[in-house]
Each structure stands twice: as structure tokens, then as C-alpha cells.
Amino acid sequence: MKPIFYALILLLLMPLMTPFQNTAYAMEEEKPVTLHSEAVILIDGTTGQVLYEKDSDRPMYPASITKIVTGIIALENGNLEDMVTVSEAARNVEGTRVYLLEGEQVPLLKLVQGMLINSGNDAATAIAEYFDGSEAKFAERMNEFVRDKIGVTNTTFQNPHGLFNENHQTTARDMALITQYAMQNPQFRSIVGTKELGWNGEGWKTTIYNHNKLLWRYEGTTGVKNGYVDESGHTLVASVKRGDSEWIAVTLKAASSEFAYSDMEALFNYGFEQFRTNRVVLNPSLFQTYLDRYVIPEELVFTSRKDENFVIQINDASGQMVVSSLEGQNLYTEDLESIAAAASRNRSSEKQQEDNPEGASIEKKAVPYKLGTGTTFVLTIFITLVFLILRKRIKRKNAL
């Protein structure tokens, strides 16, 4: 049994001896090529980690990237099958349109598509009036939404479409966070990633094409929106996914559309060359000492430089899981839930279910952790070996 026992111990320890990728965040040496936009930011769309920024907190005019907010509000809070009657104000709004006619009735979902794909200002106004009767009232909803639900603090909208208003301002950082939130909605993600769509309206029958040219010119682009008014210059928000990494970038006030797109490509190239999103599946058996005190997460998700190695440990004093570089630099921390707190939460959930047996399903965690694939693999080997040894011994005994 000894050789088998040692082999099993080695299997259990192998994940600890394997260097992982870390969460290092640094931009001191490598930088993107020269950028033309006045304010930019690049973040990891999964973790929110900032990978690069320039004047990202400077108040700027957003133009039509404003419609990202109008779109996610409509998708989250409206009945997408509702028929919206187009008003005179919506019919006559300035700028890019999908040529709605006054009195035309359009499903809310179609208005969102026309607004996000073809940047229809008339569709944006119709959406605002559907919710609150006017652009001004809807702008109040927009500001409350981004402040209270997303947590941004440097944005003030005055309308649903982004036509110029001196008080209609945001920042690159805020727009990145707003987009990160919106891209978690599958329907929003699908619409902003749509290259073309047949449009059959009373006043316009055509195929509309997404104004975001990056969908055609940069591999892995998943969305989201461009914009332009004289005062804002060219603005652009885009997202790109390759492998496990999805980046979101914002460029504000470029002198031309081509400058905005080239800046975006430079930022994404930089991101993929320097960083990666890590998904580390944790084997609970590697933290055996702590299993009676903490709930061990199934997975850690964080951003790192590609070439950085790290170790994962639990800091018992702080109750945190800590990712550190081999040099001892703290790269990432995650608060751990205590077993006592988890048990209390489970009891509370069970009591709610008893009090409301016919209510909606309530999430329950019967055990503090779930076996990862690595643990399952080791246990399978162990059980198989034990079974074979026992069967061999039984055969020998019967032979005697």
C-alpha cells in the first residue's frame, strides 16, 4: 500500500507546486502606441480591473454612447412586446434616425434595436416618452439608475440619445462601468453585437447596419456603441472577447472616426499582449486545515499580467484568501465566509422556505463547498485502486 499512498499524496500536492498566473496590475513600462483620443480607459469586462487609463475621470460629452443607458433601462424595466406610439417630438428629433412616423406603433424591442444598432435618435425619444412621458423625466430615471444600480458618480444625463447639452456629461471610467453592467444582460449583448437587421417600418423599409465598424474589423468584437456630435468629437465604447478574457474600452473626443477606431485597436492589442483573465478552480482538499472555519470558494476569477506567477494562501487573521506574487506582493484578496455565518444563512433560508412553502425557489447551500474536478479525479483514482487491491486479496484468500 505504501507506493500507492505516496502516489496519491503526490497527486494531491501537484496543484500546490504548479505556479499560477497572478493578479498583477501595472502599466509602468509597457504602454499602448500613441493615442489620439483625449480620454480613454481599458478594463477587464469580467473583473472590472483597470488595465490602462488616461484622463478617465475627466468630465466629457458622450454623444450617442448615451444610448447604452437608455437601452439597458428599456430591456430591464419595459415590456418589450408593448406597442409604443411615436409622438410628433420623436418624429422630428434631430440627428440620426430610423425614420419613425408620427402615430406609428412600434414594439418596444424594435425601438431598442433601431436605437442601438442604427443609433436612431427618434427611437430613443420614443423610448423615453414610453417610460416617463418626456425626455427630461426619463433623464432623471437614467441618472438615478446609473447612480443607484451601477454606482457611478460622475455622470449626469439630460436626454436619452446624447444630442449636445452642456450639462450632459460623463467620464470614460463611468461609461466603462455602465457598459460592464449592461453587457451582463444577454439581450443587450445580442443587440449590440448584431451586424445587420432587416427593418420594416411604415416610413422606412431597409436593412440597418451597426454603426460600430469594429464588429467587422477587429476579431472577437462583441459590441457596443459609437457616437458623434460636434462638441463631443468621436466617441466609442467597444468590447472584445478572446478565450477567457473580454476587455471593455472607452475612447472620448477623437478628432476623427478613424482615430477612435485605431485607438480602440491599440488598447485591445495592448490588453491581449499584456494581461489575461484567470479562472482558478480551487481544490478544497488543499485547504484542509481551514475547512472547519471557512467556506472555500469553488473558483477565483481575477486579472493578471501574462508572465506573473503567484501562490494562493488563506490569511486566518483577516479571514481572506490571498493571492501573492512569488516575491510576496499582495495581488488579490477575497473575503471568506465563515462556516458559522454560512450555517446561519442556511437556517434562515430553510425557515423562509418553511414559512413560504409555495413561494419562489430559495437558494440553499447544504454543504460549505463543492468538490472541484481535481478532487473528484483524485478520489476516483483512490476508490478504483482500493477496489482492485481488495479484489486481488479476496482472490488470493479464496485460492488458499
Automatic annotation (TrEMBL):
SUPFAM superfamilies xref list: beta-lactamase/transpeptidase-like (SSF56601)
Position of the signal peptide: 1-26
Stretches of the chain forming a coiled coil according to its record: none
Transmembrane segments: 371-390
Record key words, sorted: Carboxypeptidase, Cell shape, Cell wall biogenesis/degradation, Hydrolase, Membrane, Peptidoglycan synthesis, Protease, Signal, Transmembrane, Transmembrane helix
UniProt key word Chloroplast: no
Residue stretches making up the Peptidase S11 D-alanyl-D-alanine carboxypeptidase A N-terminal domain: 29-255
E.C. designation(s): 3.4.-.-
A Pfam family: Peptidase_S11
Listed InterPro entries: Beta-lactam/transpept-like, Peptidase_S11, Peptidase_S11_N
GO molecular function, one term: carboxypeptidase activity
Family as reported in the entry's similarity comment: Belongs to the peptidase S11 family.
Name used for this protein in its record: D-alanyl-D-alanine carboxypeptidase family protein
Species annotation: Paenibacillus residui
